[in-house]
């Protein structure tokens, strides 16, 4: 079962991930929401749309913008709506 972890803490775990461009997108209900803080960071993907970010906070350690998601993806990426992906040292295995 794919698991996302950072600093030894499980952030998300699910058998229902969607893989896009090599990244696992986890369902929102599989992510530990209490470890996430909102971020003002945004980015644009030509085919997925606007990505928004969240910062991980684990036992006082912060990993800024380590989580991203597409709240309203373009039609070509509709399968990742309501899902979160990880980077910046988050291990997905």
Model description:
It is built from no helices and nine strands. Helices cover 0% and strands 56% of the residues. The mean pLDDT is 98. It has a single domain, classed as Beta Complex (Metal Binding Protein, Guanine Nucleotide Exchange Factor, Chain A), CATH 2.170.150.40. The protein starts with a strand and ends with a strand. Strands 3-4-8-7-6-5 form a six-stranded antiparallel sheet, with no helix packed on it. The protein has a three-stranded antiparallel sheet with strand order 2-1-9, with no helix packed on it. The chain is globular. A hairpin with a 2-residue loop joins strand 3 and strand 4. It comes from Sphingomonas qilianensis. This is DUF427 domain-containing protein.
Secondary structure elements and pairings:
Elements: E1 3-6, E2 9-13, E3 18-20, E4 23-27, E5 36-45, E6 49-58, E7 61-69, E8 83-86, E9 91-92
What is the name of the CATH class? Mainly Beta
Q: CATH H level: which superfamily?
A: Domain of unknown function (DUF427)
Please identify the structural class as seen in this structure: mainly beta
Uncertain regions spanning at least 5 consecutive residues: none
State the domain count. 1
Number of strands: 9
Radius of gyration: 12 Å
The fraction of residues assigned to DSSP E strands is over 45%
> What percentage of residues falls in helices of 4 or more residues?
under 10%
Helical element count?
Answer: 0
- Overall 3D form: globular
Enter the CATH topology name: Metal Binding Protein, Guanine Nucleotide Exchange Factor, Chain A
Main sheet properties: 6 strands, antiparallel
What is the mean pLDDT? 98
Main β-sheet, spatial strand arrangement: 3-4-8-7-6-5
Report the oligomer.
single chain
Q: What is the end-to-end distance?
A: 8 Å
